[in-house]
Amino acid sequence: MPGNTLDDLVTVMAALRTPVTGCPWDLEQTFATIAPYTIEEAYEVADAIQREDMPHLKEELGDLLLQVVYHSQLAQEQGAFALPDVIDGITRKMIRRHPHVFGDEAARSAGAAKGFWEKIKAGEKSAAGSGQQAAGILADVPVGMPGLTRAIKLQGKAAKVGFDWPDLGPVIAKVEEELAELKAEIAAGDKAKAAAEFGDLLFVMANVARHLEVDPEDALRAANAKFTRRFGRIEEKLAASGRTPAQSNLAEMDRMWDEAKAEERPGTAD
Hints:
The chain is mostly helical. The protein has four domains: about 5-95, MazG-like (Helix Hairpins, Orthogonal Bundle); about 100-130, no CATH class; about 145-215, Helix Hairpins; about 215-265. Helix content is about 70%, strand content about 0%. About 5% of the residues are buried.
């Protein structure tokens, strides 16, 4: 049985942040400086899950948990809130948003009707924002999300109020339109406009992913892994002759790339 508990981790974090006796690096940190690590650790968790690496997943979940404890410690020092408040808040939210599990007999009997989660969330936001100017439909999509993920969220929110194409056909047509506009700006030599058109193309490609019910981040991660794997084979082939990619040329490496593709199991996507 593991010997340490969540309370032990909280105590360690508090010690690291104790003036004079704590860690100089930890004492310098703020919410802003720690936030990038929080995002990075979430990606590490996702990576371990994708690779089905349970020992690594256990480690990465610990690193992610540390981020929650770290931010809570910073907040406690400011008198804003502490870890018990975070735990209490999420526990209450999960109970509140699952009336079909934790509610009265009538609520449990009703079950989880379609769209109930969104209705509960909307009711919470309405109660929290009563007396304030109503926010737009897209206002609660975090700006700090990865671009493709945020594009999917924005498009999904708009789709719920009817602002969406009925099927994939018009979306593909929009891809072709945006690609033509990108080509035009590239030909014109206008880098700023080409950058804007490239963004439009990525946005509509995210819409393609949404209509296909594909996670664009997962798809891109898979493509990255495929590129890494195949380029690794090029490096191995060159190393066998005592060379590096820098000592090769595009034609040779392109041939080796095709060989690496052929070595993979039938049906592997290009």
